[in-house]
Every structure is written in structure tokens, then in C-alpha cells.
Amino acid sequence: MTIASKFALALLGCVVVAVTVYAIVAAREELSRTETDVVEYEASTAHALRPAIRDVWLHDGERRALELIEEAKERLRNVDVRWVSLGTDAPPEIRPRVSTSTLSALRDGEDVVVVDRGYQGRGAIFTYVPVRVPAPAPVAIEVSRSLANHGAVRRAIVRNAAATALLVAVASGFVTTLLGLALVGRPLAELVSQARRIGEGDLTYRIETRRRDEVAVLAREMNRMCDRLRDSRESERAQAEAKTRALAQLRHADRLGTVGRLAAGLAHELGTPLNVVLARAKQIAAGGLPPAEASDKGRIIAEQVERMSKLIRQLLDFARKRDLQSSEADLRALVTRATALIDPIARKSGVTLAVTSDAETVDARVDVEQMTQVVMNLVMNAVHASASGGTVAIAIGRAKAVPPAEDGRGEQPCTRIEVTDQGTGIPGDAIGHIFEPFFTTKDVGEGTGLGLSVAYGIVKDHGGWIDVVSRPGQGSAFTVWLPDGGRT
């Protein structure tokens, strides 16, 4: 039920109650006024008869006085006139119709009025006026009138009151309905519509109102709220874009740092094929080689150049700045390409890279370049943590895992990339900070502290997380979990 309907019903109820109370009060006043009129009429009738009856009694006797009473009774048809005696041994036909105990004031010469509402089931008003005549017991004139017509008066008043209440209720209901719709219903409907728009994200609509009541104040506040929400949304969008740009720049900077380290490793790796190319080219340039041997040396030169070009192309592709672009990819092939770039650095440090997989292909929906950066950061850290002669194991597969408690998700199938080293492990007081930007346990100049932070951010963007298990003196294991096969 709407507020306007409640308002109309409440006002209608108040009007009905007010009319009903008025009808009750009016009925009581009307009945009281009628009774007063009856009493006054009866008293005036008795007082008019009293001197005549007394004179007739004194001059013509009791019989003639009683005859006068009967004549008056016949003439006054709307009241009943009787001659009554207050004597205890008076005959029943001349005794008062009310209890004699209520007529004690008659003996003192006072008038007595008795309203008996239960008399004969209809009620009656009795007026007694004493008459001083020489009689054995005090006598009086009894004038009475039935209250039977009071019921008709009451019913008439009730009918009038009901008709009045009905008319007032209809008029009040019509007026309050119109006022409720104009003052409450329509304004609240606009407010509800505006609230729905806000809930759906539409902050462009504004409520136009020229009123000066509480509803108008609420409408203006909702308009201002929309303005504030719009400004806040734009501010948040700008901050999100700035944060995205900052993260992209941070990741690119970390990638360029990795490229620098890779370039240093590749410089040594490229030395051997360059020497091969140089030697074969000199032999061909010197001439005198049989055509078959010259062709073979040319083939060797082409293979070495292609090998170097492939390494340089991979390095350039890795260094190129790109936006997040998810696609179906084979993580085993991805890890193999990433470790191929790091292998020269690992071999220079005397560390072996070992890649294993649960299947020939492990498909997941990822951004290939971004996930390559994650793998290279983790493998590079593992190589730096390992001593000469150690092995860094990279395992790819699928398993069920439970996300961190703050994630709120339960156990679910995931794609797993685990990088395990045989280094000295991570100190217990540092393991809680390793994913913080610029935090590093390496010596000054050996690391920026961005690698793990960038890797964690990329994995989180893919809907995953990174687990760390480290044992002092035995090494560490970093596991990348990508829920639902890494699909975002």
C-alpha cells in the first residue's frame, strides 16, 4: 500500500470517527433536550391543573375533582394525567406508578420528576405536583409521558449521522486521494524511479521540482548525490587508468631490466655462432673451395645466422610494450621459450634448467607476453639463488588448490607452474614482504626488487595467485596457480 493510500485512509478514518462522535453527542443532546421539554411540558400541565382541581375539591368535593382529572386526561392525549394518593393503604388504581420512596419530597410540597427508562420496556417521564386538599393522605397530580418516540428520534439521528458520515467520507476520500497523489504519490514515484536509475548506474537524470517541502528537499539531495557519485566515478576511473598506466610502465621497466640481463648473457651466447660465421665466410672468400664444400659452409652460415636472429627476435618481442591480450596458449611451449632465453645466463652460472610437464600440451587462457615475463622473473630469481652445479626445476601441470583466505573462493581446479631452486632459501622475516615493490634480499646493485612484485600483479590480473614454500638451506619453490586452467 502506498503512502498516499495510507494517508487517505488515515484521514478518512479520522473523519468517520469525528462524524460518529459528533452523531453520538448530537443524539444525546437531542434526547436530553427532548426530555427537558417533556419535563417542562408536564410540569406546566400539572401546575395549570393544580389550582383548578384544588378549588373544585374545596367547593364541589372529591368526586368532582376526580371527574375534572378525567376530562383533562381526555383533552391532553399526548400525556397521561392521574390523581394519586401517597397513603400506604391507597387502592392500586390511585397509587403512583413509581416507587413511593422516590416521592418523599412531595410531602414537603416540592415537585418531583422521575425518569424511568425501563418502564414497560419503553421508558417514561413522571412529573408529580403536590395538591393541598383535606384528604386522609397527601395527594398529587401525576403527569407522565412515554419515551417510546425517543427510539425514533435516535434512529433518525443515526440515519442522518450515517448519511453525513458517508458524504463526508466520500468527499474526504476524493480530496485526500487527489492531494495524496499530487503531494506524495507522484513525487515519491519520481524518487523511486531516480533510485532505480542510480542503482542501474545511470547518473544523468535529474528530478525537476519547484516545491518547497520535505520531498523537494529529498529530490534536491538525490540530485546532488548523483553529481557527487558522477564526480567520484570519474575520479575513480581516472585513478584506475593512471594506476593501470603506472603498472604497465612498472612492468615494462622490469622487463627492460630483464632484457638487459638477458642481453649480457646472449652476448656470450652469440659469440660462438659469430665465430663460426666469420671462419666459414673467410674460407669462402679465400676461394679455391670445391662447390660442394662451399655450399656446405654457406648452409652452416645460414643456420647460425638464423639461430642468432631467432634469439634476438625473441629478446625484442619480450622487450616490446603491449597491452593485456588474453588468448589460448600452450604453457609448456611458453615456458620452453622463456627458459631458452635464460639458458645462456644459467649455463654461465653453472645452473641447469629442467622443464617437465604432466602432458604434451597444457592449455590455458593467458596473455602470452605477460605470462612469459612472470616465468622469466621467477626462473631468473631461481638462477640467481642457486649455486654453481645446482638445478632449477620448472614443472607445468594441473591440480586442485585452495586460494588464499582473503580470496573467499573454495578449492578449484587450476593450472600450475612451479619453479623450484636449490638455493639457500628465504629468511623467515622476509618471506611476508617478497611481493612488495622494491623489496629485495639481494646485495645492492644486483636487483631492483620489482621482479616478484610485477609477477604477482600479472598473476593476480589473471585471477590467480602465487604460493611460496621456502626451507632455509634447501631452497625455495614458487608456484603460480591459474584457476580454471588459467582462464579469466
List keywords for this structure.
alpha+beta; 11 strands; 57% helix; Heat Shock Protein 90; Beta-Lactamase; 5-stranded mixed sheet; 4-stranded antiparallel sheet; 488 residues
What's the structural blueprint in terms of helices and strands?
Layout: H1 3-60, H2 62-75, E1 80-85, E2 112-116, E3 124-131, E4 139-146, H3 148-199, H4 214-286, H5 291-319, E5 326-330, H6 331-348, E6 352-357, E7 363-367, H7 368-385, E8 391-401, E9 412-420, H8 451-461, E10 465-471, E11 475-482, H9 483-486
Parallel strand pairs: 6-8
Antiparallel strand pairs: 1-4, 2-3, 3-4, 5-7, 8-9, 9-11, 10-11
Helix pairs in contact: 1-2, 1-3, 3-4, 4-5, 4-6, 4-8, 6-7, 7-8
Compose a concise summary of this entry:
With 488 residues, this protein is α+β, with helices and mostly antiparallel strands. It contains nine helices and eleven strands. A hairpin with a 7-residue loop joins strand 2 (112-116) and strand 3 (124-131).
Care to describe what's here?
The structure is a single chain. The chain has helices at about 5-60, 60-75, 150-200, 215-285, 290-320, 330-350, 370-385, 450-460, 485, and strands at about 80-85, 110-115, 125-130, 140-145, 325-330, 350-355, 365, 390-400, 410-420, 465-470, 475-480. It is rod-shaped and about 190 Å long. Helix 1 runs antiparallel to helix 2 (about 60-75). It has 9 helices and 11 strands. The protein is α+β, with helices and mostly antiparallel strands. Strand 2 and strand 3 form a beta hairpin. Among the domains are: about 5-155, Beta-Lactamase (2-Layer Sandwich), CATH 3.30.450; about 330-488, Histidine kinase-like ATPase, C-terminal domain (Heat Shock Protein 90, 2-Layer Sandwich). Residues about 445-450 have low confidence and may be disordered. The strands form 3 sheets. It has a 5-stranded mixed sheet with strand order 6-8-9-11-10. The chain has a 4-stranded antiparallel sheet with strand order 1-4-3-2. Strands 5-7 form a two-stranded antiparallel ribbon. Helix content is about 55%, strand content about 15%.
